[in-house]
Amino acid sequence: MKRVLVLGGAGAIGRHVAGGALACSAAGHVIVADRDGTAAAEVAATHPGRAEPLAIDIFNPAELTDAIGRADAVLNCAGPFHKTSLPVLQAAIAARKPYLDVCDGWETTRDLLALDGAARDAGIPAIIGLGGSPGLTNLLARIAAAELSRCDEIVTVAGMDPAPLPGVVSRAPARAVHWRRQLGTDVEIWQGGSLAPARPLTPVALNLPFFGKRSFHLIGHPEALTLPNVVPGLRSARHALALSKREGALAEALAEAVAKGDLTKAEADLQVAEPGERPLALRFRMTWERLLGGFVRDLPPFFAYAAGTKDGHPRRALAALTRLPKGGAAGAAGAALAVGMELALTHRIDRMGVSPPEAAIDPHLFFEEYAAAATLRGTAPGPLIRIETAEGP
Prior knowledge:
This protein has 393 residues and is an alpha/beta fold. It has 15 helices and 16 strands.
């Protein structure tokens, strides 16, 4: 049985990864590594005889090299990923150990993909961004695109609060803590067959099969950078958040104010965290939007929308999960990374090198394994993937 190193193993996602890895057939032992040795010991104690704690400073090369040398695979859940992903991946390549992470930064994703050649030369798979979003969304996008003869557009959507950011304590929703990082910046999306700048948090209107016309909010994310490489002829790729009308009003107002120079990034951050700092007009608008409708609870937590043609006729498709593992967004991401580990250690990854999930993993094979984690014991498992299609643009 294999030994698996879980970096950030005491965090919100990492503790789910540790348990998920031990539930798979390939892993017999987990090293729960975290900068907080006490917290790592608490997580390891929940898996007696099969897990050990390790206090580690990821930025200490000797400690990182020693930890990786004790394992057969490296699962990186230690954020912030724009600081941790690159050194950990480089160390895994040097040790020739399979690597998987839940990195959700679009700029960091581009840096990691630059190490593809080195990972291929080392003969290892390195799967980046295998969490809930990116991760589940990428694989759902491949399923939705397969419903079309020609796929022109893909929009991946996350509709639940993500796992809390490491070390961040905030009164704002976890989703807002993520999107406010992009205020005042441009992000990259795939538009017109090439990368193009876009302002985050602008509305994205979609006519979804079954669910009808809905509005979401654009955010910079890895899916828009990686999906064009695996879906031939794709003209547009974007990622969006399903915000409540109230939170959407806040996001739109702050993004516009920062873009115009009416607010600094710091002032916008304060308004996200402290409702009393918001102007009266914005508070009135948010209250009005709340009265109009709350969070889009009828939508799946993660899904992908694809538009194009089928046999020459306009067609739209939606692929979504019908259920998730326990633990909310952290549980969903942890189970995804654990399944990826299982596929890597049992040699069921389609390519060596650095890859996003959709480029290296068969989505149907992945979701066959994922279904077990998403099914409660004693319940009758129904289909995990829901596919809806509709004619017309």
